Amino acid sequence: MIQIRNILIPVDFSENSQKAVEYGLFMARSHGAKVYMMHVISQRVVDAIHELSIKGYKGDFVEIMRNVRQDREKEMRSLVASSMADGLEIEFILKEGKPGTEIIDVAKEIKADLIVIGHQGRSALGDILLGSVAQYVVNHALSPVLVVPYRED
Q1: C-alpha angle 66-68-69 in degrees, rounded to nearest 5
Q2: Collapsed DSSP state (helix, strand, coil) of residue 35
Q3: Integer distance in angstroms from the first to the last C-alpha of the chain?
Q4: Which of 10, 78, 81, 124 sees the fewest Cβ atoms within 10 Å?
Q5: Domains of the chain, with CATH numbers?
Q6: How far apart are CA 19 and CA 25, in angstroms?
Q7: DSSP string covering 61-111, please?
């Protein structure tokens, strides 16, 4: 019998991420699973902040990154309405690096039984292609991946 004990929900704060959170929390409630919600601060963002701090813009790199991390954690927590989270065990994870790689690493680390991820973004090829992060996760994950499609309401 299939048991789902640990669910990983990577978020990028898009509208589609919110839908992925709703699906992930529903699955967690249905299976009595623990939820790991994660966000990855892209290495490109980290590098840009570092470059600006070297040039003297907006202060110290360490302080700026601390503020970015605090803001992202608050944003993650705000995606989970208190009524949605009632009775669920939720852990928030914040990483820096390449989003796809970090998601796969965390999934292995927590022994994720399911990854719930939003279809990332829309483009001219949006109906044909998955977002690059979602595609990477689907191709490299050792556990099942539920991709929540983008839909304009």
Answers
A1: 65
A2: strand
A3: 36
A4: 124
A5: 6-148 (3.40.50.620)
A6: 10
A7: HHHHHHHHHHHHHHHHHHTS-HHHHTT--EEEEEEEE-HHHHHHHHHHHHT
- Please write the tens of the pLDDT for every residue from 39-96: 998 877 666 766 766 666 666 767 777 788 888 899 988 888 766 778 899 999 999 8
How many CA atoms within 13 Å lie on the side-chain side of 86? 3
17: how many CB neighbours lie within 10 A of its CB?
22
In whole angstroms, give the CA distance from residue 79 to residue 65: 21
| pLDDT tens-place string over residues 92-130 | 999 988 999 999 999 999 999 999 999 864 444 444 444
DSSP 59: S
d(CA 14, CA 16): 5
Instruction: Return the structure tokens found at 9.
Output: 């929900």
58 and 64 in contact (C-beta within 8 Å)?
yes
Q: Provide the pLDDT for residue 1.
A: 79
Compute the half-sphere exposure of residue 74: CA atoms within 13 Å on the CB side of its CA. 6
Tokens of 39: 């966000």
